[in-house]
Amino acid sequence: MGSGTLWPMPGSRRSFLALSAAVLGGGGGPDSAAGPLTLFTFGDSILDCGHYNAHGVHPGALLVQNDDVLFPEFRGQDLRSGRGGRLQHRALDGATVDGLARQLQGLRAPVRPAVALLTVGGNDLLRGLAADTGDGLRRFERTLNSFVRALPVRPLLVGTVYDPTFGDDSRNFLGVEARIARRNHRRVNEVLAEVASRHGALADLHGHFLRGGPSWYVHTIEPSLRGASEVRRAFLPHVVHAVGAR
Questions:
Q1: Are 48 and 93 spatial neighbours (Cβ–Cβ below 8 Å)?
Q2: pLDDT bracket for residue 243 (50, 70, 90)
Q3: How far apart (Å, rounded) are the C-alpha atoms in residues 145 and 143?
Q4: DSSP strand pairing (222-223 vs 217-218)
Q5: Structural domain boundaries of the chain?
Q6: Strand-pair category, 85-89 with 114-119
Q7: How many helices and strands in the chain, by DSSP H and E?
């Protein structure tokens, strides 16, 4: 399964509920009696951003159960509106690719159906990878692939690293020449896309957030309350597609 999808994008409650009934409500597939989907989150603050907003909201929780007061647009567009869903939240604010292995501690192969979400690479860029001219990117790729091999959950839905400068070099906050930083950012996203193409699907957070605005961020780089919902928006059709493909 690639990064594209033919499934409805969020915004149509009727289409989502119809799809939910088909793929989560006992469509007769091999996992139709397996119970609610387990959604795993791994990685960094893109998925672990609840402490950056007053409501403690983060994308994994919204995918399992929407907050209909905060986000009425997504009413009925969550796993609980179908067969059900439960969350295993393992992502950790500040994590780099080197910390992913620790997020697997105590994890056994889950009862199907299950889906894993992963966001990583942003902190690696902030902590030196943006300036890399050596083998840092190759090490990032090796370490990421090692984590994915050890991860006992499929499919894996991978989010790209977004750009809080919106492509504007005058907003560069890294202290690294923009040309070099953008090249390495692009390469990190290429590595993430390669992993996604082999193990699940790609959620293009980079492309989606370029169409957003400053209100989607707090503290320059972290998802705001709106940002948390927009991360959810980018992953949601892929979660539904992944469940329906089983």
A1: yes
A2: confident
A3: 5
A4: antiparallel
A5: 13-25+33-244
A6: unpaired
A7: 7, 7
pTM over 0.85: yes
d(CA 109, CA 152): 5
| Structure tokens, 244 | 């329906």
Residue type (1 letter), 109: A
Angle between helix 136-150 and 178-199 (nearest 10): 20
Rounded Cα gap, residues 225 and 206, in angstroms: 18
Residue whose token pair is 């989560």:
24
Q: Is the pLDDT of residue 13 over 70?
A: no
Q: Are 200 and 156 contacting, i.e. CB atoms less than 8 angstroms apart?
A: yes
Host H or E run for residue 190: helix 178-199
DSSP secondary structure of 7-29: SPPTT-HHHHHHHHHHHHS--SS
User: What gap in Å lies between CA 196 and CA 65, rounded to an integer?
Assistant: 25
Element (H, E) at 159: strand 156-159
Distance (Å, whole) CA 199 – CA 222? 27
Distance CA 161, CA 195 (A): 14
Instruction: For 130-161, write each residue's pLDDT tens digit.
Output: 999 989 999 999 999 999 999 999 999 999 99
Euclidean distance between CA atoms 161 and 137, whole angstroms: 14
Question: CA nearest 169: which of 161, 180, 159?
Answer: 180
Fold classification of 13-25+33-244 is: Rossmann fold (3.40.50)
